[in-house]
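In the lab's daily routine, each protein ends up as an entry in a very long ledger. A line of letters takes care of the sequence, but it says nothing directly about the fold. The fold becomes a row of whole numbers, each drawn from a learned catalogue of backbone shapes. The protein below has been through that process, and both of its lines are reproduced in full:
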Amino acid sequence: MPESPSPLSSVRDLKAADVSAGRPFASVLVLRKLSAKTASNGNPYLNAELGDRTGSFTCTVFSDSPAFDAVRAAMEGAVLRVEGRVDSYQGRLSPRITRASVVPPEELSSAELVASLVETAPEEAASLWSEFNGFVDSIALGELKATVRHVLDEIGEAFRTAPAATLMHHAYRHGLLEHTVHMARAARVLLPLYPEVDPELAMAGILLHDAGKAIEYEGALATRRGRRGILQGHVVLGYQLVRRAAIKAKLDPDRAERLEHIILSHQGKLEWGAAALAATPEAVFVSKVDELDARMGMVQRALRNAPPGDEFTERILGLDAPLLVRRLPS
């Protein structure tokens, strides 16, 4: 008699399972990414990233799998009901999917189901937004504060809900807001150490550095880069937002140029997506605070999502290493 799957498993449940047992499972997951490949023998296969609010995994679906046609026909962002067996590949969770079907839209009206699928920032969004506005209000120069406000008015609600990335850091709902507030908190502590950095210009740069991501990304359940994100990218989109806002606010040309330079250079390196290398004290400061919080955001997420009892995570792409998650004894 075939072994039946246990009740619906989260990604966290699957990562905590004994992969050697190959136990069956059933889950409802978001198809975050999908790519079609061809094996050396000419047979097609799929690489699929599936996830819920507790994490994600990548698996391979071969053409002889009963799930192949259903997964291939699904669109990124679709919700799939999947069955399979727990397995791993090169030390990572990589289940064998044996059955898959798309959950129809009418079943997605359940708030409980959607909440189980969408990872959100651990801090409450309304509190983060209130704190963010406090940082905006702390900017004394009227034209600089107005520049920040004009950008926020243009991008609207998307800034509050967007992730900060699709994969690397703060890659979940409200992640952009959380990342920005964390940077502003760090800057408030660090700025007194560096009197060479204009504190208001640096704070404005932090609050706006990733504003272009509110335009770059789209998708309610699975984040992807939209047309403008692919053709222009968040650095250029952010520069355009800030330039228009600075003109509207009548910000003096020198500050406007320096603020635009922060946006263009905040990625740190050209190979990381920067349009220019940081060449002002404020731009250097913002790019390094950005890098710090991006990396610590990866650490915080890994610690939250680590299965109980594990000593190390899987290799984290942005850190290029596994992370020790076992806590020090108190």
The two ends are 48 Å apart (CA to CA).
